[in-house]
Predict the structure.
Amino acid sequence: MKKIMIVEDDKSIREELKKLLKNAGYDSVCLEEFENAETEILESNPDLILLDINLPYINGETLLQNIRKKKDIPVMMVTSRATEIDEVLSMSYGADDFITKPYNPTILLLRIGAIFKRMEHQGEIVTYQDLTIYRQKGIIKKENTEIILTKNEMIILNYLLNNQNRIVTRDELMTDLWNNNEYINDNALTVNISRLRNKLKSVGYEDAIETRKGIGYILI
């Protein structure tokens, strides 16, 4: 379930958005104190941020800039400031979309869905059961737990995902690693597989990668 963070200082709008997102099948979390907004947003690590511009302590556009320097979390500006300059600034600072209040709930949900679809089509985000996998970042995420993979581990997992339910030989994995300029030997491959398994185990997938003795591995 995708988690959306609502960064809005108007309580009635926060509650309205929270109810709308829940009914649409999203998990949502609301930021209610804004003195340490940037830290709290980054620690929450949502899949999307709905961000107002007029906030206590910090301007939403400044907050957007600060977030962009550290993470590529999608951001949609949801604001009553309908000037062209605000939209231009927000988009130039890295916002993925800009919608003004009062908004049409259906349009808002369609735009949220479009952001997630765009990311999936770009191949950045894939899913494995209830895991979200960020290929470019080398991150696997389950609910609020985020695990960082090494480059080799991500290459291996990505290859297994692309060939799910098919036995992949060790030679195939070695070739794929070499094609990505990762020149490892047979022993190093074993170590990387073991580490990847341990990381998957830490988020509840102990038996995700099965060994087929004398042949290779399969992601089930």
